C-alpha cells in the first residue's frame, strides 16, 4: 500500500516537472539561439538544461538553463538556456528538461544571415478565436517563414484566470514557436501586473536600458528590425518613453542594414469610423508626441525606415508611404519604387474577440487596401533592392495569399 502511494506521488511529481510551452527566440547573435520553457514545479534533482545536436538520436551537446521563479499566483518556473556556436543554416534537434522529465524532441534551422528575411507578422491573436494559429502551424511545417513577430495583445490575456489562459496559448503555439523564433512586443493587454507575464514568459534581446524585454532590436541578414513599446505613452510613463526614444535614436544612428522595419502595437495611421482616422490620443501620441512625450515619426522618417507594422485595431489595412499625414502616392499601389517615407501596414487581424471589416471604417486618402479577413502578413526580403509582403487568409488551414505588395529601392 505504501509503495503504491509513493509511486503515485512520484508520478504526480514528475508530471508537474514536465517541461511545457517550449519556444525559441533570437538574441541578436548570429550563432546563438535562446530556448525558453516552463514547469509548474521546481526541478530539485538536477539543473534543467537543453540537450541538442545535428542528429536526433545523438544529442551530444548540453546548455544549462537559468531559472526564474514567478511571484504570486500559481506556482510557475521559467527556464532559459542559450545555445552557442551554432552553424548558420544547420538543422539542430533538441529537447529540454532534466531526469525528472524531458520534452519531446524538436528541431530548428539556425538562421543564415546570408539569406533573406522571411517572417510572419501579426498582432491581436487570442486563444479562443485564434483563427490564424492553424495556418501558422501549417506555414511552419511547410517552411514558409523563418521567424514570427507577434506585435502585442497575446492570448487575451496572458494573465487571465491566474495565467491559465496564457498557459493554454503558449501550449497552442508550441508547434510554431518550438521550431522558429517567436518574437513578441507588448500591447495594451500585456500591461497588467507591470508586464510580468510577457516578461516572465518570453526572452527577447536586451536593450541595454532596462532589464526587461519591452523594446529591442536585432539584425536579420540585411534587415534591421526594431520593436517598440507604445504602451509607455498610453500609460503616461514619461520617463520610460523618453528613455526608449533616446535608445531608438541611437539605434537608428548606428544602423547599417539595407532595410529597416519597425514593429509597434498602437497604430500610427489607420482608417476608422472617424473621418479623421486613428484620432484616439493614446494612438496619436506615439507618432506626434507633445511637450512631455517625444513622438517617433520624425525619427523614422529621417532615418529612412522602410516599413512600419502595428496592430491594436482588429483588421488589416495597407497604406501608402507617408509622413505627417501626407501620403506619397505613386502610379502603382502594389509596387512602390524608391519610396521617400515609411509605408504602414495594420496587421491586427490574426483573430480575437472582435473583428472589423472595411464596412466598419471610413477609408482615408492614405489607404490602399482594407480587408475583412482574419489572417496575418508574411514579409520576404529578397535582396538589397526588393522586398514583398502578402496577406495570408486564415479562413482555411493552409492560408490563401492576398494583397501582394512590393517595395523596390535603388539608393
TrEMBL record:
Keywords: Glycoprotein, Hydrolase, Signal
The enzyme's E.C. designation: 3.1.3.2
CDD domains: MPP_PAPs
GO MF term list: acid phosphatase activity; metal ion binding
UniProt superkingdom: Eukaryota
InterPro entries listed in its UniProt record: Calcineurin-like_PHP, Metallo-depent_PP-like, MPP_PAP, PAPs_C, PAPs_N, Purple_acid_Pase-like_N
The keyword Transferase is assigned to this record: no
Catalysed reactions, semicolon-separated: a phosphate monoester + H2O = an alcohol + phosphate
Residues in Calcineurin-like phosphoesterase domain copies: 141-316
Signal peptide: 1-15
Hydrolase listed as a keyword: yes
Purple acid phosphatase N-terminal domain boundaries: 19-109
EC primary class: hydrolase
Domain Purple acid phosphatase C-terminal: 341-397
Entry's family note: Belongs to the metallophosphoesterase superfamily. Purple acid phosphatase family.
Name this protein carries in UniProt: Purple acid phosphatase
Amino acid at each position: 500500500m505504501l509503495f503504491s502511494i509513493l509511486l503515485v506521488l512520484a508520478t504526480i511529481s514528475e508530471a508537474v516537472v514536465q517541461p511545457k510551452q517550449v519556444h525559441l527566440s533570437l538574441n541578436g547573435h548570429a550563432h546563438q539561439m535562446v530556448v525558453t520553457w516552463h514547469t509548474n514545479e521546481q526541478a530539485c534533482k538536477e539543473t534543467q538544461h537543453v540537450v541538442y545536436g545535428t542528429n536526433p538520436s545523438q544529442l551530444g551537446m548540453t546548455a544549462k538553463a537559468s531559472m526564474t521563479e514567478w511571484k504570486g499566483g500559481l506556482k510557475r518556473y521559467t527556464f532559459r538556456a542559450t545555445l552557442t556556436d551554432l552553424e548558420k543554416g544547420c538543422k539542430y534537434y533538441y529537447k529540454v528538461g532534466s531526469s525528472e522529465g524531458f520534452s519531446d524532441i524538436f528541431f530548428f534551422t539556425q538562421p543564415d544571415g546570408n539569406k533573406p528575411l522571411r517572417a510572419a507578422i501579426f498582432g491581436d491573436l487570442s486563444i479562443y478565436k485564434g483563427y490564424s494559429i492553424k495556418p501558422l502551424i501549417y506555414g511552419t511545417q511547410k517552411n514558409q517563414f523563418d521567424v514570427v513577430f507577434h506585435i502585442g495583445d497575446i492570448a487575451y490575456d496572458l494573465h487571465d484566470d491566474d495565467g491559465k489562459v496564457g498557459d493554454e496559448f503558449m501550449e497552442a503555439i508550441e508547434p510554431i514557436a518550438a521550431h522558429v523564433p517567436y518574437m513578441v512586443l507588448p500591447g495594451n493587454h500585456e500591461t497588467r501586473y507591470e508586464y510580468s507575464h510577457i516578461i516572465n514568459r518570453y526572452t527577447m534581446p536586451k536593450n541595454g536600458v532596462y532589464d526587461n524585454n519591452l523594446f529591442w532590436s536585432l539584425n536579420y541578414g540585411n534587415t534591421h528590425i526594431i520593436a517598440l513599446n507604445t504602451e509607455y505613452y498610453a500609460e503616461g510613463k514619461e520617463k520610460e518613453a523618453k528613455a526608449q526614444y533616446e535608445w531608438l535614436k541611437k539605434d537608428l544612428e548606428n544602423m547599417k542594414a539595407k532595410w529597416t522595419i519597425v514593429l509597434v502595437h498602437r497604430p500610427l495611421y489607420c482608417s476608422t469610423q472617424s473621418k479623421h482616422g486613428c484620432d484616439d490620443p493614446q494612438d496619436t501620441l506615439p507618432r506626434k508626441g507633445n511637450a512631455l512625450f517625444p513622438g517617433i515619426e520624425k525619427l523614422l522618417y529621417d532615418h529612412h525606415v522602410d516599413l512600419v507594422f502595428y496592430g491594436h485595431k482588429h483588421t488589416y489595412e495597407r497604406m501608402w508611404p507617408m509622413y505627417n499625414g501626407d501620403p506619397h502616392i505613386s502610379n502603382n499601389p502594389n509596387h512602390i519604387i524608391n519610396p521617400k517615407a515609411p509605408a504602414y501596414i495594420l496587421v491586427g487581424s490574426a483573430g480575437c474577440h472582435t473583428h472589423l471589416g472595411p464596412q466598419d471604417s471610413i477609408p482615408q486618402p492614405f489607404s490602399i487596401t482594407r480587408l475583412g479577413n482574419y489572417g496575418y502578413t508574411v514579409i520576404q526580403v529578397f535582396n538589397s533592392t526588393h522586398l514583398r509582403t502578402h496577406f495570408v487568409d486564415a479562413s482555411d488551414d493552409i492560408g490563401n495569399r492576398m494583397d501582394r505588395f512590393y517595395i523596390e529601392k535603388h539608393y
